[in-house]
Predict the structure.
Amino acid sequence: MLVVPLIERKRDGGALTPEEWSALVAAYTDGRIPDYQMSALLMAVLLRGLERPELAALTDAMLASGQRISFDSWSTPRVDKHSTGGVGDKVSLVLAPLVAACGVAVPMMSGRGLGHTGGTLDKLEAIPGFRTGLSLAEVRAQVMKIGCAMIGQTPEIAPADRRIYALRDVTGTVEAIPLIAASIMSKKLAEGLNALVLDVKRGSGAFLPTLEQSLELAQTMIALGEDRGCPTVALLTAMDRPLGRACGNALETEEAILALRGEGPQDLMEVTYALGVEMLLAAGVEKTSKKARHRLENALSSGLAAEKFERMIEAQGGNPGVVEDASVLPQAKEVEVYKAPRTGVVVRVEPKVVGRAVVAMGGGRLKVDDPVDPTVGFVITVNPGDKVLTGEPIASVFARDPAGIKLGFEALGQAIVVADKLKEKPLPLVSHRVTKAGVEELTRPDSGRTSRSPR
Ligand code: URA
C-alpha cells in the first residue's frame, strides 16, 4: 500500500477515509508498514487531529486487529477501569482484585510505561515470574475462575495497540486526544465488558493538563464506548502531584500491596474507592454510592481483596508470597534519603519531573526494546501543603548506581518546591463525573475536598 500520500494528506490537514484507516492499521500490525512511516503519520495526527469518522474508523480498525474476549452467556457482570496515565498511579493493582472481591469480574488489559507515566504491566512484571502475556483462552478461564486477570496486548488481543503504543512511547506522539482515545477504547472494547469506568487525569502531570482537554478526552472516549454498546463513565482525578508515595515499578507494586492490606496512603485509597464505587454501580451490584463504598471497604478490611490478588498472581505464574512479604520484589542496589532544603511549605511536587526521572534512571524506555529496571524510583512522603523543616527527610531515592542517585537527587531538587506559603491550592482528588448525559462537578468549594451526592 502507498503510505506516503496518506502521510502527506494528513500532514496537510486532510482526512483519511475509514477504508484507508482500516487498511493502514491492518498493514502496520502485520509488519507491512515500517515504523518510520507509522511514526510520521502519528505525528501528523498529533499535529492535525482526526475528524470524528476518522477516529471511529481508527478505533474500530485497532479493535478489529485482534480478537474479542467472549464470555458467552456467563451472567457475572464484567466491568473494567482504565486510566489516561499518571505518575505513581498504581490504582489498577489495587482496584482489580478489590472489585473482583465484590463479585464483579475484571478482565483488565493494561499498558506499559508511556512517556513520563508508569504502566501497570511493568509494575506487575516486577513480581518474580508474573506473566502478562496470557492467551485468550487463559484470560477467559482465569476471569471465570478467580474474577480477575491483568494482561497485556498480545498478537491475539489488541495487537495494533501493542505496536502503536510502543511506537508512540518513543516518538513524542503520546499527547493527542484521538490517539489516547483510540488506544484506550480499542483495548477496552475487546474485553467483553458490560461497562467501563475511565480515570481521566488532569493537571500538570497528565498528558493533557487542562480541564478543558481532560473533559474533551473523557467525552470522546465515552462517545466511542456508548456508540459501541459499552456504557462508559469517567471520573476526572488530580495529577498535579504524584498519586500515593511510591513512583517506580517495584516500589509501586509494594505500595499497592500495602493498600490491599489496609495500609495505603489516603489519596491512593480515595481515588481507588471513587473508581470502585463507579464500577460496582455500573455492574449493578449496588444501587447507591454509599453501599458500594461499604462493600469495597469490607472487601479490603476482611482480607478478601488481598487474597484475590494472591490468587491472581499465582494463576499468572508469579510468586504469591509477595503479598505477605514484599521483600521478594527486586530491590535497588542504592538507596539514599533526600532531605528538605529549607523550612517552609511544600508548594509543588511536580509529577512530570518525577516520572521523567524514573525513566532516565532506567525505570522506563527510551527506545522500543529497552529493558526496564523495576527497582528504581522514589518514595516521596510529602504532599503540597505539608510543612517541612530544613534537613527533614522527605523522600528516598532508589537507584542502581551512584549516578542514578545523583540523577534522582537533581530531579527531586527540581520537582519538590518548598516556599514560605502555598500559592495555589492542589487540585481536588476527584473533581468531575462525566457520563453521556453530561458533566457533574463533585467538589465542594468550602472544603476543597471531594464530595458526592448520595443516590
Ligand atoms: N493509556 C493507554 O492505554 N493509551 C494511551 O494512549 C494513554 C494511556
